[in-house]
């Protein structure tokens, strides 16, 4: 199952009762929200509180901000303007709190593999910690009040990141997407709404937040995820018998081990093929976890941040190839 489900994310949207939504807040009001939430978290008695660092978005370099998006720690919208925005981020980056994005608080927990209950439990504890010292905007009929009506109710978005190369190659993703929408779920690119899937990575998440409990939404997402896993496993069994697919996998690892220049999109495509080879047993001494780490490391801004310098697109392509050769050298295909 971990070969298919990369990670689980649970996000909660909350707003403070006595403040307008961020879009109606001035600079002073945004700063007050930031300080209120920061004090509520770091002034609490929970052991969780000491695990967070505070980051003012206006103080980050552009590539540092983009890297946070690439690592799925913040949204693209959040970095569109650093003014009046801040981030609370745990040391292991499994928990983050965006302040003054679309809502005052966007609390997020990420766990490896399929771990919806565990991620929600952690998010709920963090939410409770804040709720003890803050007063959230809440309506008995509508639930938690949010700027976007689609988040009313629980304010929760739960999602799983899936690697679906076999279903993608079988050209059934569009049909699956249509069926999922009828069940209150949506499947899209790894970076969410409006993004194209790259490296056969897809994000499956709940759409309905009003009139349904968090537990019911999570159970529905979990059940559908298991059905998708079963479909992907069946499709993998079929396509991995093909000599052409096996050749593609072998060639992909060969290119990654020898290329001198490689683009971001090509790297993701080749890494996806190798990941399929790992799960099918064709490649035996590379792990899925290694490939997952590389899929993040090859991202443009993350690559530049890791090297500590600004790179031109051409320089990035060269450095990306250097890194991939180094990380995958000596690997053997069967």
Written overview of the protein:
- The chain has helices spanning 27-42, 62-70, 116-131, 165-169, 173-181, 214-239, 243-258, 264-280, 288-297, 300-307, 313-328, and strands at residues 5-14, 52-56, 86-90, 95-99, 105-112, 138-139, 143-144, 156-163, 185-189, 201-206.
- The protein is α+β, with helices and mostly antiparallel strands and 334 residues long.
- The longest helix is centred in the last third of the chain and has 26 residues, at 214-239.
- It starts with a strand and ends in a 6-residue tail after the last helix.
Strand order of the largest sheet: 2-3-4-5-1-8-10-9
Unreliable spans? none
How does the overall form come out from the CA principal axes? globular
Query: Which structural class should the secondary elements be placed in?
Result: alpha+beta
What separation lies between the terminal Cα atoms?
23 Å
What summary fits the major beta sheet? 8 strands, antiparallel
> What would you report as the Rg, rounded to the nearest angstrom?
21 Å
Helix and strand string, N-terminal first?
EHEHEEEHEEEHHEEHHHHHH
* Oligomeric state: single chain
Total number of beta strands: 10
Task: Tell me, rounded to a whole number, the average pLDDT.
Answer: 93
Total helical segments: 11
- Percent of residues in helical segments? 40-55%
**What amount of the residues lies in strands?**
15-25%
Q: What's the SSE blueprint?
A:
Blueprint: E1 5-14, H1 27-42, E2 52-56, H2 62-70, E3 86-90, E4 95-99, E5 105-112, H3 116-131, E6 138-139, E7 143-144, E8 156-163, H4 165-169, H5 173-181, E9 185-189, E10 201-206, H6 214-239, H7 243-258, H8 264-280, H9 288-297, H10 300-307, H11 313-328
Antiparallel strand pairs: 1-5, 1-8, 2-3, 3-4, 4-5, 6-7, 8-10, 9-10
């Amino acid at each position: 199952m971990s070969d298919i489900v990369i990670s689980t994310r649970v996000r909660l949207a909350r707003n403070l009762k006595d403040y307008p939504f961020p879009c109606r807040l001035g600079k002073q009001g945004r700063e007050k929200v930031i300080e209120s939430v920061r004090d509520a978290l770091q002034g609490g008695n929970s052991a969780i509180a000491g695990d967070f660092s505070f980051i003012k978005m206006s103080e980050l370099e552009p590539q540092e901000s983009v890297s946070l998006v690439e690592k799925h720690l913040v949204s693209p919208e959040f970095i569109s303007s650093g003014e009046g925005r801040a981030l609370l981020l745990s040391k292991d980056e499994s928990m983050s709190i965006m302040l003054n994005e679309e809502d005052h608080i966007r609390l997020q927990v990420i766990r490896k593999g399929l771990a919806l209950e565990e991620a929600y439990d952690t998010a709920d504890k963090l939410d409770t910690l804040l709720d003890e010292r803050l007063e959230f905007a809440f309506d008995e009929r509508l639930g938690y009040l949010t700027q976007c009506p689609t988040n009313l109710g629980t304010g929760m978005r739960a999602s799983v990141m899936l690697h679906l190369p076999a279903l993608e190659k079988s050209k059934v993703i569009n049909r699956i997407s249509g069926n999922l929408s009828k069940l209150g779920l949506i499947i899209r690119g790894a970076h969410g709404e409006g993004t194209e899937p790259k490296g056969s990575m897809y994000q499956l998440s709940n759409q309905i937040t009003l009139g349904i409990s968090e537990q019911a939404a999570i159970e529905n997402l979990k059940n559908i995820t298991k059905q998708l896993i079963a479909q992907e496993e069946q499709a993998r069994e079929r396509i991995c018998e093909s000599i052409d697919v096996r050749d593609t996998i072998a060639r992909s690892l060969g290119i990654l081990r020898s290329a001198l220049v490689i683009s971001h999109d090509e790297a993701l495509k080749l890494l996806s093929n190798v990941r399929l080879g790992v799960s099918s047993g064709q490649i035996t001494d590379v792990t899925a976890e290694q490939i997952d780490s590389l899929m993040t490391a090859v991202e443009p801004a993350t690559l530049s941040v890791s090297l500590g310098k600004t790179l031109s697109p051409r320089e990035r392509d060269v450095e990306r190839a250097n890194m991939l050769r180094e990380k995958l050298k000596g690997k053997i295909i069967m």
